[in-house]
Specification:
mainly beta, seven-stranded mixed β-sheet, 121 residues, single chain
């Protein structure tokens, strides 16, 4: 099993920024399509962003487009989610997911433990 470790979450004021990291336990993470999902209290787990294996293409949920940026550093086997102009409605547990050779719309095989992001007003 591939282990995914999210980090970078925390408490931030509205309008601020956070950068989440998803680090994999393998050195071939560049061959994995990686997605970010989030689950707010009392809500379903929703798609946030995804980056295909190899780096492109990328897709975002409409709710975060223009504010969030997904990227990857293959040398570090890490995928990032840069979150800017954060809003209270962005408050959620954020999950990193991955599937080797996956497409942007494929189901994901591996999930991280989740990382709490709280945006205060």
């Amino acid at each position: 099993q591939v282990q995914l470790l999210e980090s970078g979450g925390g408490l931030v004021q509205a309008g601020g920024s956070l950068r989440l990291s998803c680090s994999a336990s393998i050195h071939t993470f560049s061959s994995y399509t990686v997605g970010w999902f989030r689950q707010a209290p009392g809500r379903e787990r929703d798609f946030v962003a995804a980056i295909r294996w190899g780096g492109t293409p990328i897709r975002y949920a409409d709710s975060v487009k223009g504010r969030f940026t997904i990227s990857r550093d293959n040398a570090k086997n890490t995928v990032y989610l840069q979150m800017s102009s954060l809003k209270p409605e962005d408050t959620a547990v954020y999950y990193c997911t991955a599937r080797q050779w996956g497409g942007l719309f494929d189901d994901y095989d591996y999930w991280g433990q989740g990382n709490q992001v709280t945006v205060s007003s």
